[in-house]
Amino acid sequence: MQINIHQTHHTISDFEAIYSYLEEVLSNKLNCDTLHIFPELFLTGYPLQDLCLQRSFIQKYCDLLDRIVTLSQKTKNNMTLLVGGLQYEFDEENLPITIKNVIYEITPKSGLRVLYTKKLLPNYDIFDEEKYFTAGQENCIYEYQGKSLGLLVCEDMWISSMHHTDPVRELFLECEQQKVELDAIINLSASPFYLGKDNTRLIRASEISKLFGCPFLYVNRVGGEDEILFDGSSFCINGSNVTFRGKLYEKDIIKYKLEQFSGDRDLIKAFEDKLNSWESLFKCDLIKNSENNLRLPELSDEHCEHILQSLRFGIQEYAKKSGFKNFDVALSGGIDSALVLAIMKLSLLPGQNLEAIYMPGFYSASKSYDLSFEMCQIIDIKMYTLPIKFIHSSIRNQYNDVFHSPMEGLCDENIQSRLRGALLYARSNQRNSMVLNTSNKSELAVGYSTLYGDSVGAISILGDLYKTEVFALAKYINKNYSNIIPAGIIDRPPTAELREDQEDSHSLPSYDRLDAILEGLLSYQLSEKDLIEKGFDAEEVSKVYRLYTRSEYKRRQFCPIIKIKAKSFGTGYRVPICKSV
Amino acid sequence: MQINIHQTHHTISDFEAIYSYLEEVLSNKLNCDTLHIFPELFLTGYPLQDLCLQRSFIQKYCDLLDRIVTLSQKTKNNMTLLVGGLQYEFDEENLPITIKNVIYEITPKSGLRVLYTKKLLPNYDIFDEEKYFTAGQENCIYEYQGKSLGLLVCEDMWISSMHHTDPVRELFLECEQQKVELDAIINLSASPFYLGKDNTRLIRASEISKLFGCPFLYVNRVGGEDEILFDGSSFCINGSNVTFRGKLYEKDIIKYKLEQFSGDRDLIKAFEDKLNSWESLFKCDLIKNSENNLRLPELSDEHCEHILQSLRFGIQEYAKKSGFKNFDVALSGGIDSALVLAIMKLSLLPGQNLEAIYMPGFYSASKSYDLSFEMCQIIDIKMYTLPIKFIHSSIRNQYNDVFHSPMEGLCDENIQSRLRGALLYARSNQRNSMVLNTSNKSELAVGYSTLYGDSVGAISILGDLYKTEVFALAKYINKNYSNIIPAGIIDRPPTAELREDQEDSHSLPSYDRLDAILEGLLSYQLSEKDLIEKGFDAEEVSKVYRLYTRSEYKRRQFCPIIKIKAKSFGTGYRVPICKSV
């Protein structure tokens, strides 16, 4: 039995492109006698949020469904498609009463038919599916060419004590009751990427394969949706063996011949593991370093390469969907902006243009210019030097004239950062370029940036990487991509250069300690007390906690961050600005 | 039977203040032989979002519960408290497995006892309760001093076809089955304010009162939580009569003697109405004006006063919780900034300081200065005039020197707006003041503002009012608060003054048409097609729709907006930036 796995890549609600894709599949005679499987919500894209409530979206989507029915009825080729889509039920006033996340069967004769409704609607972290969708109640054992296929949609494969239902168990019990031996499990997914997720998926899929004694097919979409990436990486796992892989971050069609199960059955493990669950969100994986202190786990080369590919994809997706071909990065001579520039350089496609702007002020070291210039020379990127000293002076004078109070301290520091932000955006307006934000996760967590200043940008590249990880990624890039970041940039102590002799280390704990504390607070929900019990310095913890909780207002106005980790700032992180804790 | 209704006002997670309040109630002998009722989640505050998952919060909350038990055991006074709080269940690793939104009974003998768990968890618009909480299954008929009291928590009182459960019906059936006649319904609420909500609450409460044949007591919290306001306004309704009202936006204690039911029973209406429901979110209330065109309903004087009080409260709550006593508003000579200044002036408390900054550029009319100055004279607010011409020139020159390309068009327009934003924040940094944003809802909806420019601010005052409503509110204030906004500001055509002879009407449809189209798109989810069918001009609709969907990226980086309407930008509005629709 032949199964074609369509790892697709479309913009959300791009119904024309989605229709054309189906038209091509249905009209191709080579596709006959084949089962074609598509990702979850292939017909709409994902995540939709409120879009699925808007009548513009609903009307165009319903038109698409009608056109698909007509198309399938005209088709003479004998094939079957299983596609993810939405099923709406409307009331007498045409308002959506229920919306279901379903698997449609498309066949030449029957048009569209709902086979299965997603049972387990993820509703934690970035997920809001219970806000919009109604869960299914029924299992589906789908018969095709004499084979029995168990159907699941994405989250259905996972278990957690938070979930009120366990679709894998329910499917298993149904198979036992009906005395059916499945020939394959097929999971239609739209599964957001984070580092390590792919491995977790494989482990879980293998458990399910061994439970049912059949191959587990996983088809995932490709796409960058604002902050969230879908990595594709579809697969089949048969017992313990991965028998195919889809491409990473690229559309793909995998032609797969259904295999016999190989390996040992295991009727227990699949019911016990709680991977990728509510509980896993709290599981602290800080590790002890050689001095026996808790630190972030180090990024391996493999991790770094995966991150790099993810960031490149995320940038290009956002640029394409927003219509940008030009890019601007403000260089400071520091590691963050240098790394963003390096990543963007490595991401550039033909016809795209990248430029760097260096904006020295009174407190910029000449070394900052030298290093920025050196880097741009190495990677052959035009660097503009736009000094802000004179403008800064002219602002100081004008300000003092009016307020009779000189710009000093924070006021004088931030004006430089905001002036740079404004100038960067002037250039962006002039040449219609996308501004790449250069903040990192450590900065964001403690509010060590200037709102409307160095925090500006269309999208944040490093906002899900702590400062120590920024260093690791820079070193990896240098090692594997011809030393494009000057060593001097990596070696110098981090500074914002907004006053004399400013260094990050004067205001913050050392980054390895800071990052570990932040990871504890953010990813594992640890309290100050927990962190102190784990051996962190009480005073440092208390300082970091205060900075962290009091900088919520800055994060609220931050741009989308390309999501790399299981826990990130952005959609999946929602905390009141004003509170007492 | 004596019931004291505690309409409380505490910052989220301010456990010390919450404990002290309880201590005071329990130690007061005058409170004996009385039932004391408190709002939903009195013990924590609301909304909590991810805070209720963070161990810092959880540990401090659990400490509070322990302290309350000890306190209640020490208390000699005979009284009973019904307070809203969270009930956590933890697993063996101390992770929260379920979190319930409950009513605790506090008595001198028994300490804390859970009486009831909220059944209906709102999960639409701004609400995410299913993300965090587990719903209750059981009704509660609470016996106190020989009386039978039906307990509900907030959303439990509403019905909708989206909801899988109807707590009012379930309670009613239980009463029938047990042959109990209730003496009162008590609803503990934390119900966000929007215009018209109070009336909807009264109508629904009256229906329930008539269904059960007993008074309906409604206790609501007071507070401004970032964008969301809780208005208090607790009440008792007996049949059709309101027998007490709590204060608006102020803490209050109402001493209430339980009444006999008066009026006619109605066993049908309460099961039919769908107020404040999923469906009501779509119910279009655009009205026809004298030319038979659909327009926004006009704001009555009563609406305007309610809005004004809400905005004053919202500003002061945000200021107090963020620790600000100084305020800055950038005046432009236009209506939005003038209205913000007027509202802030009317909100000022002793010890607070408000100043205005007028920043004229090359395209600012002298009239803009005159009107701004006149207004500040009238309301006795210090106005600083900080010209940006020279700085703008110096930026133009520097920019041209570097890029060999003069600042023109959008680039030259936006730099002025961003320069003003930077200067305003310089002043804010210098005197530790809170910057009040001056954008309105129409601007926000079509992206007619400069990101990091005129869109800056800590909190948005007018972001939930369309431009036509801004005019209405300004006129109302002039009529009722001694003409503090010069007529010239209200009468002149809106302009951003960023280029020669710029007027909003050159780029946008007239505001009465624009606002009606926007309300259709935003509040009623209407499509372009729907709007055209309702009689709007096809070209205008299509232009507005394009501006609306393409400005999502600006809204993503906008500050919190004080929520005034049923449908607002902010937490309750979630749409992907990149999409095709």
TrEMBL record, chains A, B:
Domain of life: Bacteria
Keywords, comma-separated and alphabetical: ATP-binding, Ligase, NAD, Nucleotide-binding
Listed EC numbers: 6.3.5.1
Entry-linked Pfam families: CN_hydrolase (PF00795), NAD_synthase (PF02540)
Record pathway: Cofactor biosynthesis; NAD(+) biosynthesis; NAD(+) from deamido-NAD(+) (L-Gln route): step 1/1
UniProt xrefs under CDD domains: GAT_Gln-NAD-synth, NAD_synthase
PANTHER family, sorted: GLUTAMINE-DEPENDENT NAD(+) SYNTHETASE (PTHR23090:SF9), NH 3 /GLUTAMINE-DEPENDENT NAD + SYNTHETASE (PTHR23090)
Protein name: Glutamine-dependent NAD(+) synthetase
Organism listed in the record: Halobacteriovorax marinus
